[in-house]
Design a protein that fits this description.
Helices cover 42% and strands 15% of the residues. It is an alpha/beta fold and 249 residues long. It has a single domain, classed as Alpha-Beta Barrel (TIM Barrel). An 8-stranded parallel β-barrel has the order 1-2-3-4-5-6-7-8, surrounded by 5 helices.
Protein backbone atom coordinates (compact mmCIF):
# COMPACT_ATOMS: atom_id res chain seq x y z
CA UNK A 1 0.00 0.00 0.00
CA UNK A 2 1.21 3.47 -0.88
CA UNK A 3 0.78 5.69 2.17
CA UNK A 4 -0.99 8.95 1.31
CA UNK A 5 1.10 12.09 1.67
CA UNK A 6 -0.34 15.60 2.00
CA UNK A 7 2.23 18.39 1.71
CA UNK A 8 1.62 22.10 2.13
CA UNK A 9 3.53 24.47 -0.13
CA UNK A 10 3.46 27.84 1.61
CA UNK A 11 5.24 29.59 -1.28
CA UNK A 12 6.38 33.13 -0.36
CA UNK A 13 4.06 33.48 2.61
CA UNK A 14 4.30 33.66 6.42
CA UNK A 15 6.72 35.44 8.69
CA UNK A 16 8.19 33.63 11.70
CA UNK A 17 5.34 34.97 13.84
CA UNK A 18 2.79 33.69 11.29
CA UNK A 19 4.57 30.34 11.23
CA UNK A 20 4.40 29.94 15.00
CA UNK A 21 0.69 30.69 15.05
CA UNK A 22 -0.15 28.42 12.12
CA UNK A 23 1.82 25.43 13.37
CA UNK A 24 0.47 25.80 16.90
CA UNK A 25 -3.05 25.62 15.49
CA UNK A 26 -2.21 22.79 13.11
CA UNK A 27 -0.51 20.34 15.48
CA UNK A 28 -3.64 19.18 17.37
CA UNK A 29 -5.79 19.20 14.23
CA UNK A 30 -3.64 16.61 12.39
CA UNK A 31 -2.27 14.65 15.36
CA UNK A 32 -4.22 11.50 14.50
CA UNK A 33 -3.96 11.76 10.71
CA UNK A 34 -3.46 8.56 8.74
CA UNK A 35 -1.74 10.41 5.90
CA UNK A 36 1.85 11.57 6.10
CA UNK A 37 1.82 15.33 6.81
CA UNK A 38 4.46 17.72 5.44
CA UNK A 39 4.73 21.50 5.49
CA UNK A 40 7.13 23.15 3.05
CA UNK A 41 8.00 26.65 4.22
CA UNK A 42 10.12 29.58 3.08
CA UNK A 43 13.77 29.34 4.12
CA UNK A 44 13.39 31.91 6.90
CA UNK A 45 10.67 29.83 8.57
CA UNK A 46 12.41 26.45 8.42
CA UNK A 47 14.25 26.55 11.75
CA UNK A 48 11.08 27.60 13.56
CA UNK A 49 9.03 24.94 11.79
CA UNK A 50 11.51 22.18 12.58
CA UNK A 51 11.68 23.16 16.25
CA UNK A 52 7.92 23.44 16.68
CA UNK A 53 7.15 20.12 14.99
CA UNK A 54 9.60 18.03 17.02
CA UNK A 55 7.74 15.15 18.61
CA UNK A 56 4.75 15.58 16.30
CA UNK A 57 3.67 13.77 13.14
CA UNK A 58 4.35 16.85 10.99
CA UNK A 59 7.45 16.78 8.79
CA UNK A 60 9.15 19.84 7.35
CA UNK A 61 10.26 20.52 3.79
CA UNK A 62 11.95 23.34 1.92
CA UNK A 63 10.66 24.87 -1.30
CA UNK A 64 13.86 24.51 -3.32
CA UNK A 65 17.51 23.43 -3.10
CA UNK A 66 20.64 24.11 -5.14
CA UNK A 67 22.62 21.29 -6.75
CA UNK A 68 26.06 22.43 -5.54
CA UNK A 69 27.39 21.67 -2.06
CA UNK A 70 28.74 25.22 -1.74
CA UNK A 71 30.16 28.00 -3.85
CA UNK A 72 29.48 31.28 -5.61
CA UNK A 73 25.72 30.95 -5.95
CA UNK A 74 24.39 34.10 -4.32
CA UNK A 75 20.94 33.65 -2.81
CA UNK A 76 20.92 29.85 -3.04
CA UNK A 77 20.74 27.18 -0.33
CA UNK A 78 22.50 23.80 -0.40
CA UNK A 79 21.14 20.43 0.63
CA UNK A 80 23.72 20.23 3.42
CA UNK A 81 22.36 23.48 4.89
CA UNK A 82 18.81 22.12 4.85
CA UNK A 83 19.83 18.84 6.45
CA UNK A 84 21.64 20.70 9.19
CA UNK A 85 18.38 22.48 10.01
CA UNK A 86 16.52 19.19 10.30
CA UNK A 87 14.58 19.46 7.04
CA UNK A 88 13.35 16.14 5.59
CA UNK A 89 11.61 17.01 2.29
CA UNK A 90 12.25 19.49 -0.51
CA UNK A 91 10.09 20.60 -3.44
CA UNK A 92 11.96 20.54 -6.75
CA UNK A 93 10.85 21.79 -10.17
CA UNK A 94 7.67 23.57 -9.15
CA UNK A 95 5.99 25.22 -12.13
CA UNK A 96 6.61 28.65 -10.64
CA UNK A 97 10.34 27.88 -10.49
CA UNK A 98 10.19 26.76 -14.12
CA UNK A 99 8.11 29.76 -15.23
CA UNK A 100 9.79 32.60 -13.33
CA UNK A 101 13.30 31.39 -12.51
CA UNK A 102 14.46 29.36 -15.49
CA UNK A 103 14.20 25.88 -14.02
CA UNK A 104 14.72 23.16 -16.65
CA UNK A 105 14.45 19.39 -16.70
CA UNK A 106 18.26 19.28 -16.49
CA UNK A 107 18.49 21.50 -13.41
CA UNK A 108 15.61 19.60 -11.78
CA UNK A 109 17.63 16.41 -12.20
CA UNK A 110 20.75 18.02 -10.74
CA UNK A 111 18.80 19.23 -7.72
CA UNK A 112 17.17 15.81 -7.23
CA UNK A 113 20.58 14.12 -7.22
CA UNK A 114 21.96 16.63 -4.71
CA UNK A 115 18.95 16.20 -2.45
CA UNK A 116 19.15 12.41 -2.48
CA UNK A 117 22.91 12.44 -1.89
CA UNK A 118 22.34 14.47 1.28
CA UNK A 119 19.43 12.39 2.56
CA UNK A 120 16.63 14.77 1.62
CA UNK A 121 13.41 13.43 0.09
CA UNK A 122 12.50 15.26 -3.14
CA UNK A 123 8.95 16.16 -4.14
CA UNK A 124 9.43 16.42 -7.91
CA UNK A 125 6.84 18.56 -9.70
CA UNK A 126 5.72 17.93 -13.27
CA UNK A 127 2.79 19.32 -15.21
CA UNK A 128 1.49 20.81 -18.43
CA UNK A 129 0.22 24.26 -19.37
CA UNK A 130 -3.30 24.92 -20.64
CA UNK A 131 -1.94 25.40 -24.16
CA UNK A 132 -0.15 22.05 -24.03
CA UNK A 133 -3.27 20.29 -22.76
CA UNK A 134 -5.47 21.84 -25.44
CA UNK A 135 -2.91 20.87 -28.09
CA UNK A 136 -3.06 17.24 -26.99
CA UNK A 137 0.54 17.25 -25.75
CA UNK A 138 -0.08 16.21 -22.12
CA UNK A 139 1.62 12.81 -22.40
CA UNK A 140 4.49 14.19 -24.47
CA UNK A 141 5.19 16.94 -21.94
CA UNK A 142 4.92 14.73 -18.87
CA UNK A 143 7.05 11.93 -20.31
CA UNK A 144 9.79 14.44 -21.18
CA UNK A 145 9.71 15.95 -17.70
CA UNK A 146 9.75 12.57 -15.96
CA UNK A 147 12.58 11.26 -18.11
CA UNK A 148 14.59 14.41 -17.42
CA UNK A 149 13.96 14.43 -13.68
CA UNK A 150 14.81 10.75 -13.20
CA UNK A 151 17.91 10.53 -15.40
CA UNK A 152 20.46 8.33 -13.59
CA UNK A 153 18.18 7.87 -10.57
CA UNK A 154 18.17 4.23 -9.44
CA UNK A 155 15.18 2.07 -8.50
CA UNK A 156 16.57 1.81 -4.97
CA UNK A 157 16.00 5.54 -4.55
CA UNK A 158 12.35 5.61 -5.63
CA UNK A 159 10.89 5.10 -2.17
CA UNK A 160 12.59 8.34 -1.12
CA UNK A 161 10.94 10.36 -3.90
CA UNK A 162 7.45 11.79 -4.29
CA UNK A 163 6.09 13.03 -7.61
CA UNK A 164 3.60 15.90 -7.67
CA UNK A 165 1.48 16.27 -10.79
CA UNK A 166 0.48 19.90 -10.99
CA UNK A 167 -1.45 21.04 -14.05
CA UNK A 168 -0.10 24.56 -14.43
CA UNK A 169 -3.49 25.84 -15.52
CA UNK A 170 -5.01 24.78 -12.20
CA UNK A 171 -2.49 26.37 -9.82
CA UNK A 172 -3.80 29.41 -8.02
CA UNK A 173 -6.58 29.85 -10.58
CA UNK A 174 -9.34 28.08 -8.68
CA UNK A 175 -9.65 25.70 -11.64
CA UNK A 176 -9.26 22.03 -10.88
CA UNK A 177 -8.97 19.01 -13.11
CA UNK A 178 -11.88 16.65 -12.67
CA UNK A 179 -11.06 13.68 -10.50
CA UNK A 180 -11.08 11.51 -13.63
CA UNK A 181 -8.74 13.86 -15.51
CA UNK A 182 -6.34 13.96 -12.58
CA UNK A 183 -6.46 10.19 -12.14
CA UNK A 184 -5.93 9.46 -15.83
CA UNK A 185 -3.06 11.91 -16.13
CA UNK A 186 -1.33 10.55 -13.05
CA UNK A 187 -1.72 7.09 -14.60
CA UNK A 188 0.38 8.35 -17.53
CA UNK A 189 3.13 9.28 -15.08
CA UNK A 190 2.92 5.95 -13.25
CA UNK A 191 3.02 4.04 -16.53
CA UNK A 192 6.14 5.96 -17.53
CA UNK A 193 7.75 5.08 -14.21
CA UNK A 194 6.94 1.43 -14.92
CA UNK A 195 8.69 1.77 -18.29
CA UNK A 196 11.73 3.43 -16.72
CA UNK A 197 11.99 1.00 -13.81
CA UNK A 198 9.50 -1.84 -13.31
CA UNK A 199 5.77 -2.38 -12.86
CA UNK A 200 6.21 -3.29 -9.19
CA UNK A 201 8.33 -0.17 -8.64
CA UNK A 202 5.66 2.06 -10.14
CA UNK A 203 2.85 0.37 -8.24
CA UNK A 204 4.42 0.04 -4.81
CA UNK A 205 7.30 2.52 -4.51
CA UNK A 206 6.17 5.63 -6.35
CA UNK A 207 3.77 8.02 -4.61
CA UNK A 208 2.17 10.61 -6.89
CA UNK A 209 0.35 13.64 -5.54
CA UNK A 210 -2.15 15.88 -7.27
CA UNK A 211 -1.15 19.54 -7.05
CA UNK A 212 -3.87 21.54 -8.76
CA UNK A 213 -5.91 23.50 -6.22
CA UNK A 214 -6.84 20.61 -3.93
CA UNK A 215 -8.95 21.96 -1.08
CA UNK A 216 -11.37 20.80 1.64
CA UNK A 217 -14.26 20.65 -0.84
CA UNK A 218 -12.65 18.40 -3.43
CA UNK A 219 -10.00 16.48 -1.46
CA UNK A 220 -12.13 13.44 -0.65
CA UNK A 221 -13.23 12.95 -4.27
CA UNK A 222 -9.69 13.34 -5.60
CA UNK A 223 -8.17 11.09 -2.93
CA UNK A 224 -10.73 8.38 -3.70
CA UNK A 225 -9.16 7.89 -7.12
CA UNK A 226 -6.83 4.88 -7.30
CA UNK A 227 -3.85 6.65 -8.87
CA UNK A 228 -3.79 9.68 -6.54
CA UNK A 229 -1.62 9.23 -3.44
CA UNK A 230 -1.87 12.69 -1.94
CA UNK A 231 -1.80 16.39 -2.59
CA UNK A 232 0.66 19.26 -2.88
CA UNK A 233 -1.46 21.99 -1.36
CA UNK A 234 -1.00 25.70 -1.98
CA UNK A 235 -3.58 28.19 -0.71
CA UNK A 236 -5.40 25.74 1.55
CA UNK A 237 -2.15 25.03 3.44
CA UNK A 238 -2.03 28.58 4.78
CA UNK A 239 -5.04 28.04 7.07
CA UNK A 240 -4.74 25.36 9.75
CA UNK A 241 -8.39 24.26 9.60
CA UNK A 242 -8.46 24.06 5.80
CA UNK A 243 -5.19 22.16 5.62
CA UNK A 244 -6.26 19.73 8.34
CA UNK A 245 -9.49 19.03 6.47
CA UNK A 246 -7.47 18.12 3.38
CA UNK A 247 -5.14 15.96 5.48
CA UNK A 248 -8.17 14.14 6.88
CA UNK A 249 -9.98 13.95 3.53
Amino acid sequence: MRRPIIAGNWKMNNTIADTKALIADLIPLVADAEAEVVICTPYTDLATAVEMTKGTNIKVGAENVHWAEKGAFTGEISAKMLVELGVEYVIIGHSERRQYFGETDETVNKRVKAALASGLKPIICVGESLEEREAGKVEEVLVKQVEGAFADITADELDKIVIAYEPIWAIGTGKTATKEEANDTIAIIRNKMADLYCADCAENKVRIQYGGSMNPKNASDLMAMPQIDGGLIGGASLKAVDFSQVVKY
